Amino acid sequence: MSKNSAGKSGKTVVQNKKGLLGRLFKLMLSFYPVMLPFTIFLIIFNSVIRSLPAIFQQKIFEIIESNPTWGDVSTRIFTLVAILASLYLLSLAADFTFAQLMAFITQGTLKKLRVKMFGNMQYLPIKFFDQNDHGDIMSRYTNDIDTLRQMISQSLPQLLMSATSITTLFVIMIYLSVPMTVIVISGVALMTVIVRKIGGGSAKYFFKQQTSLGKLEGFAEEIMNGEKVVKVFCHEEEAKSDFEKLNQSLFEDADRANKYANILGPILNNIGNILYVIVALAGGILLIFNVPNISLKGAAISISIVVPFLNMTKQFTGNINQISHQINAIVMGMAGTKRIFDMMDSPAEADDGYVTLVNAREENGELTECPERTGRWAWKHPHQDGSVTYTELQGDVRLFDVDFEYEEGKPVLRDVSLYARPGQKVAFVGATGAGKTTITNLINRFYDIADGKIRYDGININKIKKNDLRHSLGIVLQDTNLFTGTVMDNIRYGRLEASDEECIAAAELAGADDFITRLPDGYSTMLRENGSNLSQGQRQLLSIARAAVADPPVMILDEATSSIDTRTEAIVQRGMDALMVGRTVFVIAHRLSTVKNSDVIIVLDHGSIIERGSHDELINAKGQYYQLYTGAFELE
C-alpha cells in the first residue's frame, strides 16, 4: 500500500464493499462469461435441494398423522424417499462439478489478476517505486492475492449457499406457518444485528492487519538487502528492535480483528440454541391451545408442522453461523482486493509525445525512414497538415531555465541552463544532493520539469514519446541490476535483437570479456540474485557492456566507475573512451580524475550551477572546482 494511504481505516473497505465485490464479479465474468454463471447456478441448485428435506419430512409426518395402515401408505412414503434420494444424488453431482469448476475459476482469476497487476506495474512512473516500499508491493502479489484466493474459492460460494438456503427455508416456513416464522425471524434479526456490529468492528482491524503485514514485509526485505551494512555497523539489535515494533503492531491489529471475529461464533451458536428451545416451546403452546394457524398451506398447527420447523430453525441459524464464520475471510479478502485494485488503478506514466525515433538513411540528399537498422537515426515529426519531417538524431541536448522539485515547496534545481553539443563530454561535479543525478533523470523524463524547457536536437522532449526518447539514451547507473539468466542474456538486455557477436564485441569494448571468459561457462554462466557470484566491479562492467550493445547516440554515466578499483578503472576507462567516441556523454563522478578530460565541467551546488568550463579553465579560475581538485576541501 502506498505510504500516502497507509493510514486509512477499515471503514473504507466496509463502505466500498459492494463496489469492490461488484467490480470483482464483473472482472471474473469477463474472464469466464459461461463457466462462472453455470457455477453459480450449480451452487444455487445445490443449496435449494439441501433445503427441501423439510418439505418431505412434513409430508411424511402428515401421512403418519392420518393413522393409516402401512400397506396403504408404504408406496407413497417410498415414492417420497426415492424422490428425495434422487435429489440428493443430483446435489452430489452438482457439488462435485461446482468444486472442480470453482478451483479452475479461482486459480485462473488469480493468474489473470497477477498478470494485470504486473503488466500495469511496468508502466507506472519511477515516482511510484520511489514512494512505495518494495516489500509492500510484493505483499500485494503474495498475501493480498492469497486472501483473495480464500474469499473466491471458499467464502463467497459459502455466502451464496447460505443466502440461497436461508431464502428457500424462509419460503417453506411461510408456506407452513406464519406465526412460527415470525418467531424464527425475530431471533435471526437479533443474530443479524450482532453480526453487523461485531463484523464491522473486525473489518477495520483486518484492513489494518493487511497494511501492517505489508509494512513488515517491506522492512524485512530492506534488512535482507542491507544485511552486510547491518553487520558492519553492528546494528543487529537495533534491526531486531525495529522489527519487533512492526511485528507487535501487526500482532495487535490481528489480535483485535480476531477477537471480534472469534467471539461471534459462540454468541451466534448460543442464540441459535436458545431460538431452537423457544420455537419448540412456542410450537408446544400452539398445539396445546389449538391456536389457529396462518399459512399459505392453510393447514392447522400440528406435529407435521412443528417438527419440520424445529429442523428448519436449526438449518436457518446454522446458515447464519456459516455466514458469520466467513466474515474474517471476506473482510480480509476485501482489504486485499482493495490493495490489488489500488495498484491496478495507479495511473500509468503519462506520455503525450508524438515524435518517434526511426532508422534512417540518406537518399537523394534527404533523410528517409527505413525498416532495417543502419546505425543512423532520425526523429520522425508528424504535423497537423499530414506532412512528416525528419530530423537527424545528433545528440544535441540543451536545458533552458529549468526548475524542478520532488516535493512541492522543496526545490532541487533552480534556473539551470546548460547545453551539450553532439559528441561533447559534459561532466557534473558537486556534493551529494547538488542535483547531478536529478538532471539526468529529467533528460530521461523519469520526472517532468516544473518550469523551463529541455530540447533534444531542437525538439522539446515533451513532444518525444518516452520510449523513443529512452531508446536514444544509454545509461549506466551506480547501482547495478543484473537479472536471472546467463551473462550473454544480461548483456543482450540492452538490445534484445543483438547477436552473440555484437554482445561479445560490446563486452570487449567495456573491458568485460577478460573476466567473462574465465568464468566456469564463459558467456553461458548463469547469474542469480543480482549476480551475487560476481564482484561489484564485474557487475559494473556487465552493466557498461549492456549499455554498449544498445549503441545509443547519447550516454549517461552516473558514477559508472565508482565501484571499480583503480586498476580496473583504467581498463574500463579505455573501453568507455572508445564507447564515447562520436557520442554526447553526460558523466557524473566523485573521482575528479574521471572528469578531467571532459569538454565541459559543470559544478553544481544546492541545485544551481556555480561554475562551468574545461578543466584548465576552472583550475585557472581558482574557484570551487580548483579547491576540490587540489584537496582544499572534500567533495562531500
What do these coordinates show?
It is a single chain. The chain contains 21 helices and 16 strands. It has helices spanning 11-15, 17-31, 35-51, 53-65, 70-121, 126-131, 134-176, 178-225, 227-232, 236-288, 303-325, 327-345, 436-443, 466-471, 487-492, 500-510, 513-517, 536-550, 566-580, 615-621, 624-630; strands at residues 356-363, 366-369, 377-382, 388-392, 397-407, 410-420, 425-430, 451-456, 459-460, 473-476, 485-486, 526-527, 554-558, 584-588, 600-605, 608-613. The radius of gyration is 36 Å and the shape is elongated. Strand 3 (377-382) and strand 4 (388-392) form a beta hairpin. It is an alpha/beta fold. It has three domains: 3-345, Up-down Bundle (ABC transporter transmembrane region fold), CATH 1.20.1560; 356-392, no CATH class; 397-630, Rossmann fold (3-Layer(aba) Sandwich).
List unreliable stretches of 5+ residues: 1-15, 632-636
Class by SSE composition? alpha/beta
**Fraction of residues in helix:** 55-70%
The number of domains is 3
Largest sheet: 6 strands, mixed
**DSSP summary, beta strand count:** 16
Assign an overall shape.
Answer: elongated
Please count the helical segments: 21
Named CATH architecture of the largest domain: Up-down Bundle
Strand order within the widest beta sheet: 10-13-14-7-15-16
Classified in CATH, the superfamily of the largest domain is ABC transporter type 1, transmembrane domain
CATH fold descriptor of the largest domain: ABC transporter transmembrane region fold
Strand content: 5-15%
CA-based gyration radius: 36 Å
CATH class of the largest domain: Mainly Alpha
Ends distance: 35 Å
**Whole-number average pLDDT?**
83
